[in-house]
């Protein structure tokens, strides 16, 4: 797999691309494609999060687990769906919390979060690919080694980044983050199974902006559509 990734990340992650796990990972993906397996997202979008949010522009990190495994849903940004695709339940719950927290209206028909990514929100899934209709099917291929390295690099080389860790899986990544240099906000996952156990009411969106402004950074405009 030719890694088409923003130059800022290519420099930062150069050593990862030559490690055995990454070589084996790319080989596995090629084999699956040769066997006729459908993999999401498409090859050009696997590194979409990195290409939309250059390394030096990262101010917030939202960690997801796995790309969406339904047709047309995954486009390389955690929790996001392309324009024209109905937002899944977890994303609807994210919108509900934004509305309650910030008092802005979020469309239930538009779930493309590219606008956030362009402002410095790295929408990072722990696995960057998945087989169609098979959730977590690529979770053990080595992607977590790669994305853990990404989190570690951000922690080591940036300052005052706000990490939003929703749910147990994301919160396990806290060990990779230097809490003396960065901010970690934890809440339940926005899934319908857990959103009412601490995601609703977490106020992470206003808190994120307060922390960014406190450190002289631009706040995130969480609204996706203009009226």
Structural features, described:
The protein is of the alpha/beta class. The chain contains nine helices and six strands. The protein is globular, with a radius of gyration of 17 Å.
Spell out the blueprint of helices and strands.
Blueprint: H1 7-12, H2 14-17, H3 20-34, E1 39-40, H4 48-52, E2 60-64, H5 89-102, H6 114-118, E3 121-125, E4 130-131, H7 143-157, E5 162-166, H8 167-171, E6 183-187, H9 204-214
Parallel strand pairs: 2-3, 2-5, 5-6
Antiparallel strand pairs: 1-4
Question: Which terms summarize this structure?
Answer:
single chain, about 230 residues, alpha/beta, four-stranded parallel sheet, two-stranded antiparallel ribbon, 9 helices, about 10% strand, globular
Briefly summarize what is shown.
The protein is α/β, with parallel strands linked by helices and 227 residues long. The protein contains nine helices and six strands. The protein is globular.
The tally of beta strands, per DSSP, is 6
Order of helices and strands: HHHEHEHHEEHEHEH
Mean pLDDT: 96
Low-confidence parts lasting 5 or more residues at pLDDT below 50?
none
Shape: globular
Biggest sheet architecture: 4 strands, parallel
Please list the strands of the largest sheet in the order they lie side by side: 3-2-5-6
What structural category arises from helix and sheet content? alpha/beta
Tally of helical runs: 9
Strand content: 5-15%
Compute the separation of the termini in Å: 41 Å
Radius of gyration in whole Å, from Cα?
A: 17 Å
The helix content, as a percent range, equals 25-40%
């Amino acid at each position: 797999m030719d890694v088409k990734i923003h130059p800022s990340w290519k420099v930062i992650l150069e050593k990862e691309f030559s490690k055995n796990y990454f070589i084996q990972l790319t080989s596995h993906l090629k084999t699956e494609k040769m066997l006729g397996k459908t993999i999401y997202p498409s090859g050009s979008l696997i590194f979409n999060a990195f290409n939309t949010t250059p390394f030096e522009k990262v101010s917030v990190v939202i960690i997801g687990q796995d790309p969406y495994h339904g047709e047309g849903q995954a486009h390389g940004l955690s929790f996001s769906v392309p324009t024209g695709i109905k937002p899944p339940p977890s994303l609807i719950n994210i919108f509900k919390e934004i509305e309650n927290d910030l008092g802005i209206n979020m469309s239930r028909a538009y779930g493309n979060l590219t606008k956030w990514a362009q402002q410095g929100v790295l929408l990072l899934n722990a696995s960057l690919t998945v087989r169609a209709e098979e959730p977590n099917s690529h979770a053990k291929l080595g992607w977590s080694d790669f994305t853990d390295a990404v989190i570690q690099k951000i922690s080591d080389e940036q300052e005052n980044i706000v990490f939003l860790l929703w749910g147990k899986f994301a919160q396990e990544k806290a060990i990779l983050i230097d809490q003396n240099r960065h901010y970690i906000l934890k809440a339940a996952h926005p899934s319908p199974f857990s959103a009412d156990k601490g995601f609703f009411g977490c106020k992470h969106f206003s808190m994120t902006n307060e922390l960014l402004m406190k450190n002289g950074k631009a706040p995130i405009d969480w609204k996706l559509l203009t009226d």
